Amino acid sequence: MHLWSDFASNKYSVFLALAGPYPKNATSAFGHLFLAIAPKDSISFLNWLAVNFGANTEGTSGLDYYIKGINGRFKAHYTLLPVHEKIREYTGTESRDIKIFQLKISEKEAVKLMDTLSRWIAKPQPYRFFTYNCAHGIYALLASSLDSLPPPSQKIMSPQELVLLLQNENRLGYSFQFPSLKERVLNAKDEDVARLEFLEWKNVNRNAEREKELAELRYSVAKSKKEKRDLLKPEKQRFKPHGYSRLDVGTLFVEKEANAYIRFRPLLHDISDNPNYYSSQNTLELLSFGLSANKDGVNLRELSLVHVRSAPIHDSWFKAWSSDFFAGYKKDYAALNMGIGKSFYISESRKIAIEFLPMNSLRCKSGLSCDDFVGIETQLNKRLAVNFRYGAGFEYLRSVIDFNRESIQFKTWLSYNANRNFNLYTENIFGIKKQEQLGLYLRFYI
Questions:
Q1: pTM of this structure
Q2: Which of 150, 166, 340, 411 has the most CB atoms within 10 Å of its CB?
């Protein structure tokens, strides 16, 4: 499709589209960016064009998928495709919201953008999950086309950081949101609108038997005056995600003994963090550690090499399984935890979710004395109000080697989001017989 002459005559607009995080895949915890090109007088997104930068990862899974993605062994390309295909994929198949921002771009810059794209579109580039992903690809295209665009603040750039960079440069205009099909089903008030949204959600993979019913419903809804079916909803308030790194500073009471405590996490998010952008069902933490200090000295209380938790919520028991993987150190033992199970809503209207996972935990103490534990883990989290969140967890594990040995632990936490980069946070971890620890922290995002 040749759009250069149309850009020169100012017939098209350019938008930046940000798809939300995808809980089913931890590497999609950052979300996804693409550009959308729209005719200025268009009232439908069906004839919009998407500019996408991504890698083909089909046929790769498991550990090989992560090794190739981190080392840049996937090849990425710029591609042009209809926007409705991206909307169907993200809002339908993956139940993600899409935020769409007007990009303030001159006619000269727009023509240069398309000229750059025409030269780069067939050129393969190494794709890395953290250091050269979709955000870097779109940034490179914009940086080569716009008159001025500063470099990112750090090498690891996520989609939302590029949004903030463009916003700080006054390059973003009005914004609106395209809710996921599932959200539109839940929020529709008119019966025909609800049925239409529901069938379109179920029909994301095309079912010929439903096409006639869908066509009749679309016509009925279009003629109805009861409820206007607005697919694109203007954003009243633009939420900013928290910073990548997190620092907790405060007091940790262990068996009623006070300790100074500091905990640092370089990347990225867990369920206790503000979920304005990141999913409340996702955890992706790398290389975090916690140090306590008292009159006896400084002690390492926790070290997380990697913690990846994915807890998508799906109506079917046979789809979207939840998983939890942890490798690190806790209190006085090294641990390798793996679990797989399901997550679901206790109350969908109130967004109260619970996770249930059978777990296996391999624990080793000094001297390579190891034991294998099996059991269950559950977690619950909920936003109380705009700025408050709470959560609870329960873990019951029993030794495979010595069946009389068991580990029972409860955890509750409460978080108050003062602003985007500062929280007040408290957590309480205890066993059956006595309280183990209570933490009171100031939480900073960097």
A1: 0.65
A2: 166
Same domain, 66 and 205: no
Say if CB 283 and CB 265 are below 8 A apart.
Answer: no
What total of structural domains would you count in the chain?
3
Q: Judge whether 127 and 135 are in contact, CB under 8 Å.
A: no
Q: State which H helix or E strand residue 218 sits in.
A: helix 208-223
Angle subtended at Cα 257 by Cα 251 and Cα 258, rounded to the nearest 5 degrees: 20
Helix axes 107-120, 134-143, angle to 10 degrees: 130
State the number of CA atoms in the 13 A half-sphere of 53 facing the CB.
28
Instruction: Give the range of the structural domain holding residue 70, as residue numbers without chain letter.
Output: 4-178
Q: Do the beta carbons of residue 324 and residue 336 sit within 8 Å? A: no
- In angstroms, what is the C-alpha Rg of the chain? 24
**Helix locations, 72-190, DSSP H:** 83-87, 107-120, 134-143, 159-168, 181-187
Cα angle value 159/23/68 (rounded, 5°)? 65
Asked if residue 316 and residue 216 are part of one domain, the reply reads no
Answer yes or no: are the C-beta atoms of 408 and 432 closer than 8 Å.
yes
Q: Are strands 74-82 and 49-55 parallel, antiparallel or unpaired?
A: antiparallel
Sequence-distant (≥ 6) Cβ neighbours of residue 233 within 8 angstroms: 176, 177, 178, 179
A 10 A CB-CB count for 371 gives 17
Tens of pLDDT, residue by residue over 232-255, are 555 555 556 787 789 999 999 988
Question: Residue 345 region, left (φ>0) first, then alpha (ψ -120 to 50), else beta?
Answer: beta
Q: What span, in angstroms and rounded, lies between the C-alpha atoms of 345 and 182? A: 14
Q: 439 with 298, same domain?
A: yes
Summarised one tens digit per residue, pLDDT across range 308-363 is: 887 766 555 555 677 888 999 987 788 898 888 887 766 665 666 677 788 888 88
Q: In terms of domains, do 65 and 147 share one? A: yes
Taken in order 105, 110, 114, 117, the sign of the CA dihedral is negative
CB 181 within 8 A of CB 195: no
